[in-house]
Amino acid sequence: MKSSETKLRKFLTRSAAAVAMVAALSGVVIFGGALGVSVMLIFITFAIFRELVAVGYSEANGKKKLPWYRSLQWAWFFTSLCAAYISDFFKAPMFLNDYFGDIIPSYLSIVSLHKFSHYKYLILLLMYAFCLMGTVLSLRNGHISVQLHILSFTVLALSIFVIPLKMAIFNVFTGIFWFVFPLLLVAVNDTFAYLFGMSLGRRLIKGTFLRISPNKTWEGFLGGGAATLLAGWYLPLWLGSMSWLTCSYLDLKKFGPENCQPMELFWGCSSSGGAVEVQYHGLFLAFMASTIAPFGGFFASAIKRAYGYKDFASFIPGHGGFMDRLDCQILMALCTWVHLKTFVVGQSPVDQVMNSLYSMDANERDAVLENLLSMKSWKS
User: Fold this and answer.
1) Which of 25, 122, 263, 327 could form a disulfide with 297 if both were Cys (CB 3.0 to 4.6 A apart)?
2) Which residue spans traverse the membrane (predicted)?
3) Which runs of consecutive H residues, i.e. helices, occur in 175-247?
4) Helix-helix angle 33-55:69-86, to 10 degrees
5) Residues of the domain holding 367
6) What H or E segment, with its residue span, contains residue 34?
7) Partner residues linked to 316 by β-bridges
């Protein structure tokens, strides 16, 4: 009797927390838009690293014998964060100067700081050098193997989530659809993998699916994949009919949600005609969500098993921490970014120049225009 009551209590707790998370996320997406989602992703980046730092703290530094344990990990984190956010490769301009230009002094404005971008990689090199020197100076005889183990875990953790979450901001900049849709695909896959695993697990296929996670079954993996493919085909028709989701941040800023023009691949989502191009993109992303993204969760499970943790944190009742909820989503953000760059918004030289122009102030744009006009006169 107590066992059934405990299970019911856990189910209700998880359900209530899930509803709260969905409501909070919906509020950020609807009222915060692309900028609000981006701020949320930056917050999540900090929260996930905090959880991962805490994983091995008691084991590796329980007696406080290792100097600068947390400081060095956070230093490496900020270095990797800067590397991801200053890189032109993942750039997603949000016109933050328009929001903060009246608050901060002009000489500290984002446009002014843009003038110093020529030195950004030098600054990044110095940050990396200080982190490396600090790590070497912190090494102590008798603890070197443990310290190198900590460094390896830190670098591995940073490679898993810092850049993918920055990629997620690029996805949001391309259109909130490319954030919401992959997120829903992973949620569908998780839900139906659980349902198929509970109802049919090891009844049709007896073999072990994953040794590090014995509760995972082939029925759950395949059933979740089938449901995700269906969602990948039909969900884009519903989400694609909302212009505020499908228009890019640039178009929403210029024309507003009522007048912006979605990408051509979304055309026809609101009609009852044949297949729409975005549905084929949806199938491809659904395939990634059901085959590649789950391994983010499997890998996170392996980390928890290695350190003897049930959850990375207890921030979310019944669910654990941010890493517990987003392990698959992080890998899916990377898959979505690659898909966008390869098949949807591969930037031409003209697009790259235009993105640079958007980051300039009015005087700089006038100077570029004068140079372009002079080049045109030379051609004449």
Assistant:
1) 327
2) 12-31, 37-57, 69-87, 121-139, 151-170, 176-196, 217-235, 280-300
3) 177-200, 218-239, 243-246
4) 150
5) 355-380
6) helix 33-55
7) 320
Beta strand ranges found along 63-214 (DSSP E) = none
- Higher confidence at residue 70 or residue 57? 70
Q: How confident is residue 59, by pLDDT bands cut at 50, 70 and 90?
A: low
Angle at alpha carbon of residue 330, lines to 83 and 319, rounded to 5°: 130
Q: Count CB atoms within 10 A of the CB of residue 263.
A: 18
Cα–Cα distance, 92 to 85 (Å, whole number) = 9
DSSP, collapsed to helix, strand or coil, labels residue 171 as helix
Q: 């930056």: which residue's tokens?
A: 42
pTM of the model as a whole: 0.86
Task: Residue 238: name the closest of 249, 248, 247, 246 by CA.
Answer: 246
Residue 112: both structure tokens together? 């002014």
Residue 3 resides in a domain: yes
> What's the CA gap between 311 and 98, in Å, rounded?
41
Position 118 confidence tier, pLDDT thresholds 50, 70, 90: confident
Please give the structure tokens belonging to residue 209: 């699916």
**Helix, strand, coil in percent for the chain, rounding step 5:** 75, 0, 25
Q: Is residue 371 part of a domain?
A: yes
Residue 303 within a domain: no
Q: Which of the listed residues 106, 140, 174 is the one where a domain comes to its end?
A: 174
Place of tokens 């329980």: 62
Q: What are phi and psi of 40, to 5 degrees?
A: -60, -40
320: helix, strand or coil: strand
pLDDT tens, residue by residue, 149-167:
888 888 888 988 999 999 9
Contacts for 192 with CB less than 8 Å, ≥ 6 apart: 223, 224, 226, 227, 228
Question: How many domains, in total, are found in the chain?
Answer: 2
Any domain includes 116: yes
Q: Tell me the two tokens of residue 273.
A: 């005609």
